[in-house]
Amino acid sequence: MRLLVSVRDARDASAAVRGGADIVDAKDPRRGALGPVTPRTLTGIRAAVPPGIPVSAALGDVADERVVAQAARLAAARGAAYVKVGLRDVRDARHARALAHRAAEGAAAAGAELVLVAYADASRAGTLPPLAVPDIAAAAGARGVLLDTAFKDQGSLFDRLDVARVAQWLAAARAAGLFTALAGSLGGGEPGLRTALALGADIVGVRGAACDGGRTGRVSVARVAALSALVAAAVA
User: N or C: which terminus of the chain has fewer CB atoms within 10 Å of its end residue's CB?
Assistant: First the structure.
């Protein structure tokens, strides 16, 4: 089990590393759940993170196949080991499959892997239900899947989906041969994070809980260290 901390720049990235993050995730929280950082910022984040710690890059919710392939390739070329792509406003399964395939193809061209994002609040996000995403990801050659929330104004992941449904999603993803990640205001309340850890996801992702001042604030070394300790205790 690994702790992923989302960072908006090199300063945040350094704090996340010092606090014990296992994965550093480049994301601009001011631009939404999967807000991409600029190419220059991604380069700075990668430079601030030791080579042994992987960097992932959020690419946003992209509905154009050519655009998502190019974005994935460019992020990988700047050092991202994983690229995260969401399917907000994509309701058609064939379109989703094509987008996932092109994103995986673009990432692989520069040595990275795709993480396809499912949304617990899928109806509001205008996208496919979470359980539809693992099979699409596996067929496209993705490495993993993330279950997140598209909107951050209605509580945590477990306020949108109950524990049984999250466990069902995790089981489906594992059966498809994918690694699993959970995010979505998990650290806003410690019980939510503890529930995610108890479910045994491969990765738990945080942003707001790692920051002083909420998800648009600054990553705190102390906060990341406390979260890292929770993850380590769950694994022990």
Answer: C
Quickly name the fold that domain 2-235 has: TIM Barrel (3.20.20)
Q: How much is the pTM?
A: 0.96
Contact 179, 138 (CB under 8 A): no
CA distances in angstroms from 142 to 115, 120, 149, 158, 208, listed in the order given: 6, 19, 20, 25, 27
Q: Which residue in the list 27, 88, 207, 215 is annotated as catalytic?
A: 27
pLDDT in tens, 75-99: 999 999 999 999 999 999 999 999 9
Mean pLDDT of the residues in the chain: 95
Place of tokens 């350094």: 14
Catalytic residue among 8, 78, 84, 101: 84
The structural domains of the chain, with segments of one domain joined by +, span 2-235
pLDDT at residue number 115: 98
Cβ–Cβ under 8 Å, residues 62 and 96: no
**Cα–Cα distance, 90 to 49 (Å, whole number):** 33
Q: List all residues 6 or more positions away from 3 whose beta carbon is below 8 Å from its beta carbon.
A: 20, 21, 22, 23, 203, 204, 206, 224, 227, 228, 231
Q: Residues 6 or more apart from 102 whose CB is under 8 A from it?
A: 65, 66, 68, 69, 72
Known catalytic membership, residue 84: yes
For the stretch 41-59, pLDDT in tens is 999 999 999 999 999 999 9
